[in-house]
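Note to self: user wants both folds in one dump. Writing first protein now.
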Amino acid sequence: MEPMTAARRVAVVAHFDAEGLLTEFTRRLLDELLLHAERIVLVSTRLAYEQATGLDQRITVIVRENVGYDFYSFRTGIFAVEALYSYDELIIANDSVVTIDQGGIGKAFAQMRDVECDVWGMTESLQVSRHLQSYFLVFRKSAFFTHYFDRFWRNVRVLDDKWEIILSYEVGLTQWLLSHGAKIGVAYRPDATAKRVAAARIKRKRLREGVNALIAAPSKQGVLQANPAHYHWDELYRQFGFIKSEVLREDPNGVLDVELASVIPDADARAMIEREVARMRQTRKNIMPIVTGDDSPASDELERYGVGAIDAESLSSRFAIVLHLFHIDLIDAICAYMRNVIVDYDVFVSVKSISDRRMAVRYFQEHKIRASVFIHPNIGRDVGPFISLLNTGLLDRYDAVCKIHSKKSVYHDGGGQWRDDLMKALLGSSFDVLRVLRAFDDHPACGIVGPESAYLSNARFWGGNEERLRVLAAETGIEEKRIRLGFFAGTMFWFRPAALSALRARSIGLSEFDPEAGQRDATLAHVIERLFVLWVEQAGFFAATTRSPNAALRHESYENQGIFVLPS
């Protein structure tokens, strides 16, 4: 057991129980935390008075209104810690695990003691984007004693949609930390055997869902994206002594494929678990459901609706449209342009929330548009979702792809007009579309075709991006002497995926993008916008405009061109 002198710790624990109880399993969690933390702030959204009686004097209890889920409880508890600066580590945890055996938390602390990181979690997930799962996190002083840590928690507000909470706070927290240079670590690292077990469970789930047996086996990436708290539940118990309550209560992914007795040999412990699971199932019937519009648990939604869940077998065309639909209210206007593509094509649509996904799926079904709609964190504006999709390799199969998005300029009244101008240039008529597609067919060296009016090459449009662009250009193999400014403002264009091989090889992660703060310039998204043409040319392809898609554009001809909505 790790000695108390190793680090001064304080813990914040989020609690909810439909009957206001502190169950034996929650008390066991608190007892084990007290072996490693000097104090605990227990924040509950439903706790009966008598349940708090007799608790260890090192536990401070706060009962608050039942809104905002665990992250608002974490926020409440963190700001209630007295002299937080005096501690070395801050633990946040919730009661969503059934703590069966003692010693697991101590094992995790011992395992992570010498790991160089600022924040670590029990498990990490790659669903949607890499993130530490929030049921157990440890922040070292190098992380929690910072302005960016304080700013994150001060910006946490009450949200009612659990999916939005996951995107904004669980996924968002890790991405926020990474964007500020924090190093993250994880206690649980599955070995090859655990990965094989997870792969078998994923395959069985897909077979139950009717997936063809020939394609039901997951890829390596698919295994990595599976929720470890579910698909590795038995290995997590063996190593750390807990099982996620949701697995025992609902088993939404069908992972309870072995007898509990083979994992937990103690009959008394199993009987206690079975009684608690039965109680949870009964009491949860009376809880107001999560506002997600269906009965699917949020963890399952992450797996089902992220970019990694797109079914490659459903893709069958030579051409595609990639649409980032941040502004769902523009769906009808944008689809009016898409109807001008009269050849067969696939559609990829990224949205920011589960509610937007439902609206988009319903719209496309009603209008008989075959679309793969996926949820993506609000990171990197339209470029972030595009990079995530490009990195999957799903676009490699296409001869030409049109990248568009529901652009609205928040700093210029003409933003809507500019969006329409770009759409008209790319998708304005069937004739215009066929002309561009014919250029890709007739000219294998044609790599990108953008709106004639959007190409900018004057040095005044570097903005604050040149230094960062040169770094990324070097990382992707572009020689210094070849770097010049030349780009399609607005990041809407037709392109040949093979022409962006350098971008895909770089495999830019979401953690590299700047946190969204309404910036007009100098973010990674702005840098990438200015690199597309350079990547195309580096790969041996040429850039053209919709005015003359069959021939390489003359860069110097656009020296005097400007865009009325861009600062210069």
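First done. Writing the second protein, which came from a different request thread.
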Amino acid sequence: MLKTAGQQIVRVQEHLRGGEGAVTFHEFLGKEDSYGSGRLFSRSTLPAGASIGAHVHEGEFEVYYVLSGEAEIDDNGTPIRLKAGDTHLCPSGQSHALKNPGPEDLELIMLILFENPAHQ
């Protein structure tokens, strides 16, 4: 199966989880394409100063892989910084928040998979 760039769903969400600015998602796969194993696989862009507010993942985990720019993560209250090539994992039951502190766009891959797909 081929899904061209033109077939990808592009959506913009303002103030995601109470964050600042807008996040643009270019969805490679959504929940309906994931055979019950997850709900998001996307290339996402946060412009300078944009953020995703703190939130908890229950029954699922989220992975960020930074393509370009810098990310500031609140990992259960612990601040960490990521740069291109770095990965962050937020396991089920944990919380995180994301901010682009830099002057350039933050581009990252976001993946959300269910903790136990057989039970979804």
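Dump finished. Worth passing along: The radius of gyration is 14 Å.
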